[in-house]
Design brief:
With 180 residues, the chain is of the alpha+beta class. It is 28% helix and 34% strand. The chain has a six-stranded mixed sheet with strand order 4-5-2-1-7-8. The radius of gyration is 17 Å and the shape is globular.
């Protein structure tokens, strides 16, 4: 688990309190489900640091989730990795917040070049996009551009923890903005 994912989960459990714990068994099962066409986006704002943590089945992004079987599928995996490495194509942040991308981490068995990749039947993507924002008080939302780029994606469940604000939302191709 990444540091910021751990902080997000810790902050979410602490801030929502007993109400959240009452629903934890059902939510925990749902959060780990592998649902094609769906993704999860956790947004954490702590001080000047913004973390966007994306989890998705590779099928939602590529149209397949097995190890590449031919040069065309390998090219699609390589293109996806390159595309995800440019967060400005994926998320629009308000200019007045002065956010700069500081680190992108992409993890998927399909991005690994080893023999274990061939055993992959249901591959997922875990990605973290870190930013530092000069004016974090100006960051009150963002636009998610993932639906435009990935036609197999039809919903994104979003959880936001920003200061004292906690929010849950569902995005779709017709509603790609989240505000807090």
């Amino acid at each position: 688990m990444h540091l910021y994912s751990g902080l997000f989960i810790y902050g979410l459990f602490i801030s929502i309190g007993s109400l959240f714990f009452a629903a934890t068994p059902a939510l925990a099962h749902k959060q780990h489900a592998h649902v094609h066409g769906a993704a999860k986006l956790n947004i954490v704002m702590e001080g000047k640091v913004l973390i966007l943590a994306l989890e998705s089945p590779m099928e939602s992004l590529l149209g397949f989730e097995h190890a590449p079987r031919n040069p065309q599928e390998q090219a699609a995996v390589d293109a996806l990795k390159k595309q995800l490495s440019i967060p400005a194509q994926l998320f629009d942040l308000p200019d007045k917040a002065g956010c700069k991308s500081t680190k992108t981490t992409l993890e998927s068995p399909l991005f690994e070049n080893n023999e274990h990749q061939h055993d992959t039947h249901h591959a997922d993507l875990d990605a973290e996009f870190a930013y530092e924002c000069n004016q974090p008080s100006e960051l009150k939302g963002l636009i998610v551009r993932l639906f435009e780029q990935f036609p197999h994606l039809y919903k994104i469940d979003v959880q936001v923890v920003a200061g004292q604000t906690q929010k849950i939302a569902r995005l779709s191709p017709g509603q790609n903005q989240v505000a807090w």
